[in-house]
Batch of 2 targets.
Target 1
Amino acid sequence: MLSIAEVAMRDETPIGAATSWVYSHSMSSHHTLAQVVSFVLIIAPFIFSAAAFAECEGPCAGQTNIAASNKLNRLGHREYDRRNFKSAVDYYTRAIRLNPKLTLAYACRGDCFEKLGDCSKALDDYKQALKLNPRDSFVLGLRGEEKLHLNDKAGALADFDAAILMGPTYFFMYSGRAKLRAELKDFAGAIADCNKALLMCPIASDLYVCRGKAFEAIGNLAEAHRDLSKAIQLHPNDLYSYERRAYINFKLGNIAGATSDYIRAHADYFSEIPAAILILLGIKILQSPLAVINTRSCLR
């Protein structure tokens, strides 16, 4: 049976290209196949509208240019799917030259620029895509992500808020806003957004860490411990989660658990120290986080 992407790859229309690109972007954001199917069904009306819009440009731009731009856009996505982002940028750029109103090509190219680390060009493409279609919540959310990368927290929050209010909504919108809200110390908002994002993708370990830290900040240590434990279960090598859970364990009076977690988080520093000393040292460090720096300096 062909995958969604493979079916879309055989489709020369804007609908096929859009479906294929959306599939790849969604899967890179931890979506399951079922979630991607739901995603495509939700945005289908928008894709059909975009396709109709592109076709109606025929009398002006010429049917040949429209067909060629759609083909280039599809080839661009094929390169995107192969993670050949520079090549994808070239195809999307050529598609835009033939059809400057091809909104999807701007959005795809912006996503490629983001992955290539060129946040400024990515932001320019998202702005152009939104100029052509201001009601595209998906691109609005992508612009929010890009603004966050550029440390424009107010702009990012405004874009996330608008995208979520406009709908349809997607995992990365809630995920991005959750982390931003946590940074801004809106812990209740961060927890609410993590809840929604985790319903869409229950294996996103970073969101369990984010929610755990928010629970810790509001004093709900039991929930914080549960979330950090889940993050460790999903990502056993995430040393930060062990360290964070060590402090939670200490606050809960679980000295053995706290010491074990802290030693696990800093195994490279403590591997040659006798166990009895480690226990005493772990307690001391947990009581005074600043002692971590002193301890590491002594062990070097």
Target 2
Amino acid sequence: MKQRLLIFFAATIMLIIANPVYAVFIADGGGNLYDYDIATNNSSLIGNSGVGAWFDIAMNPVTNTLYGITGGEELYSIDTDSGYGTDIGNAGSFINGLVFDTNGQLYGSGNRNLYTIDLNSGSATSVGSTGYYSSGDLAFDTSGNLYMSAMGNSSGDLLVSLDTSLGTGTLIGNIGFRNVYGLSFSGTTLYGFTAGKETLAIDTDLGTGSKLFGNGNNINAYGASDAAPVPEPATMLLFGTGLAGLRRKKK
């Protein structure tokens, strides 16, 4: 009996891992912060920044602190319960793309440059020229490859890979959608979010984007950031049932 319960318990854990609800934070042009579930295309308003529009946002994976930058080049930490921003300092350069690496180093893109940003002062240090104008976001994949949405032409923005040591950009392809101001990975899938209120899946080999749907609440995305995956309600119930079975056995 103990063995069967342990097998059931292990299977429950695997179900939880295999069926996450993938959520991101999205910021819009009015300074609002949303919690957005890609799997269901549902979103909920968290609150307003109090300082105007976020030009991009990024979650620090080490501290689970959300950061945002404004059009005035000011870096803020963001309360994910209220959406409100607390000023850190001025970057000294225009930045409209943010992302953290796995070690908690914040990168920024703006105009044709890649930067590292100091979380204590907000100041930005140039890594180098990307050769492409930043459209609005950056994203790392699980292998540490850095991608940027770049300004293209009337047919759409471009997907560019960046060298984190030199800043040099390499063109991958045309996304086929304009104003891709938000990027976020879920596993190996790169998602894009546009000011045109669209959610995209982007092929990182070809650069092409496919529209999945108009995002929940019709959010005109100005930035996006990863948020922690959470278990589906059904799997949480199953998990609780497994634990209850173990507790009953102990009595």
